[in-house]
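Support request, priority: normal
Reporter: lab tech (M.K.)
Component: structure prediction queue

Hi team, I submitted a job for 3-oxoacid CoA-transferase subunit B from Alicycliphilus denitrificans yesterday, and the status page still shows it as pending. I've pasted the exact input below so you can check whether something in the sequence is tripping the parser. The sequence length should be 217 residues. Please let me know if I need to resubmit or if it's stuck on your end.
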Amino acid sequence: MMNEVRNRIAARVARDIPEGSYVNLGIGLPTLVANHIPADREVILHSENGVLGRWHRSGEGQFDPDVINAGKEPIHLLAGAALFHHADSFAMMRGGHLDICVLGGFQVSERGDLANWHAGDPNAIPAVGGAMDLAVGAKRVFVTMEHVGKNGVHKILRECTYPLTGSRCVSRIYTDLAVLEVHADGLHVIELSPGVTREQLAASTGADLIFEPVLVA
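Reply from support: The job had stalled in the queue. We restarted it manually and it finished. Here are the results:
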């Protein structure tokens, strides 16, 4: 996925984070969300390796190698941010203290099941990290992902075919094509990306979609 598209998705997620929220940012695309939250909005970011507060990506040659996010990317801490023990960080995740977590995804089902730690390849190294703790511990789970995988493979499905990270845990899905919200009756389309039609989105999704009045970003 091109950096422009990744940043567009991250900025779209940032728009939906309310004032006063405690928000975990997972590895990969979710880490970009930190750069798109307005400076005047009070949002407390959390990283599973033990960071709490506000930060942004460090510039080249201007970083402390000991200050990183969960993806081992160097970050610059803003005033008021804190570093603390990994165990305390997981206690926050498991204790229901996070309002939102933003995670990447391999697959999401129409019921909100999430698969993001193993793609079924027998040669792949499993990388669950703290995703299972976040999926069940956060009040809302936002997933960022490409809508369609390599060779046109559907990533949003009626049923996940990869091992699950969490069951019925996803609240919203943000992709390069649309923003979807998970409800008891299925996937509601709340926004289409510029240039994307309903027909294109339906053909790119392996589950039924419910089209209500849809915004175009």
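The mean pLDDT is 92. DSSP finds four helices and 15 strands in the chain. Let us know if anything else looks off. Ticket resolved.
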